[in-house]
Amino acid sequence: MTPAVGKDTMHRNPQPLTTTTVTVAYAGGDERRGPITMGQANMIRCILRDDPTHINIHDVWPVPEGTTSAAVTDALRALTVRHEGLRTTFPHPPGAAPVDQVVASEGTFTVTVLDHAELPGDPAEYAESVARAARAGRFALEREFPVRITLLTVAGQPAYVALAFSHAVADGSAMAILREEFAELLAGKELPGLTSLPPVDLAAVEASPAGLRKSEASLRYWERILRTGPQEMFAEPRGRRPGTDEEARQLTLRSHRGGRALAGAARRTGHPEATVLMAAWCALVAHRAGQDSCVTAVPSANRFHARVARSVTTTSQDALLHLDVRVETFDALVTRTWGAVLNAYRHSQFDSVRLWEMIDRVTAERGSHFGRDVVFNDVSALPAPLLGTDAQDRDDAEQELTWGPPQALPTRLLAFTYRTAPQLHISLWAAPSVFTAEEAEGFLSGLVLLLEAAAAGDVPMEALAEVTGVRPAERGPDWLRVDGCWVSPDAVRETLGRAVGGLPVRVAEEPGPSGTAEGAPGTGSHLTAYIARGDTSLTPTEAHRALTALIPAAGSGVLAPHRYVLVENPPTEPDRSDAWRRLNTIDEGTGRSRQV
After folding, report:
1. Which pTM value belongs to this model?
2. Which sign does the torsion angle of CA 511, 515, 521, 525 carry?
3. Alpha-carbon distance 493 to 485, whole Å?
4. pLDDT tens per residue across span 50-77
5. Beta bridge partners of 566
6. Whole-number Å distance between alpha carbons of 321 and 528
7. Which end of the chain has the least Cβ crowding within 10 Å, N or C?
């Protein structure tokens, strides 16, 4: 996905002299029909649910000087005929999600031509704003051509093509491939034969016995992480629950220092730059969050196989990296990262409907709420990287941090790595609830400092604060590490009290199954909730179900207790856990549908 970059300049740009619509006919290829791919199903689910400006994607293609409008439309027609994904619609009855895709052998698409006397002072930024504006409005999956095309011209001379894509037919990699091929067509080059599968054939591979086994293995991999990993990376008093949208400003780092440091650290450790960068990202995220592991989504991870490497479709399914950072040195973490990333990549193909059913089931059983809290999207290796107007060549600064516009952020921390050489170029969106502006800047600066230290020698993990200047989250003594998660018993008590209609509640830390709490406070312990149910018929299962219904909208640090103990009336000293333990128990249990 290409995030919105640059500020919206439509209001101060001159109006085009003329606006015309050109209808372009195409014919070629076979008419086909078949099931949708797993990636298409994943994105269609989002398209039907999310704000179109968030899920639709866009790009801008510069047009070389001297190119005619006819040459532009001819190139667009050639790309449409070449790639089945651009000729695909998704028929479905109202109220139902598509399950099939239909590839047309012929049809038409339109090009809106905006002709100007001259373009504004920053023409690329203006083209970006036109493309971004075209993201508004949901694509009609069953009938609409999946690309909205605007040609910007000056006195009839083409300058830019601004495009908005349905995410059901393209992702960031697909747009990069199309941009590259568009430029080659305009240069008069002959495109090579296709080497990757079109969507209909990819769906057949996914539905094969081997493909189904791969999907099942991916679901088991995700389930292990959801049952054992932290449910919030940034669980802290000022945080919000994952999945609670915030508006975050874009912060962009351009750093020659970072580029040199990354290259140096890769040479010294003998690992690829991408692995070193991922290790540094995870190390700093886990350090800042005060976690023993880093759970991060890696959206661009699923084009490593030749059959999809250059396929113009959407392969947008997350690889989920769960990296244990409990090692002594950064070099050891880099070595561990290599295997963990490969494992995440291998498990990034799955039935998205079944995945979300599993997520809902597991989080209800665990009494948690899994959120896509941290996202790291490295697109630096894409052909013709999707850099956008705010990411063009600006190699003059040794290191700079610049703030851009805000956008809705359904995560807590989102990063796009656009390039790693000659400068490290990363855009970051950090949720204001957990990162002040100064902390966000410090995080990116700290990433460069960590890479510089790693280029010079091995870095002790216990020295991250000293090396990077990034400080771990402050939680206070009342927060506990329970079931691999940071938990606030006070927040659990307040939320559970609301869930059971205001009945008296006490939440206490107690030893885990081993009989003793091990290590740091809360490490080997669990939570027990005591509820004075009075004359109600409340059961542990009902209490657990009511609590889990509130958790997605609750504050940070809420995890369901492992055990519910029901008594008739509260003790005379309701703030003393031992007083609750001395009461007669009416009922007790986990409340879960299975033991976890």
Report:
1. 0.81
2. negative
3. 16
4. 889 888 999 999 999 999 999 999 999 9
5. 531, 587
6. 31
7. C
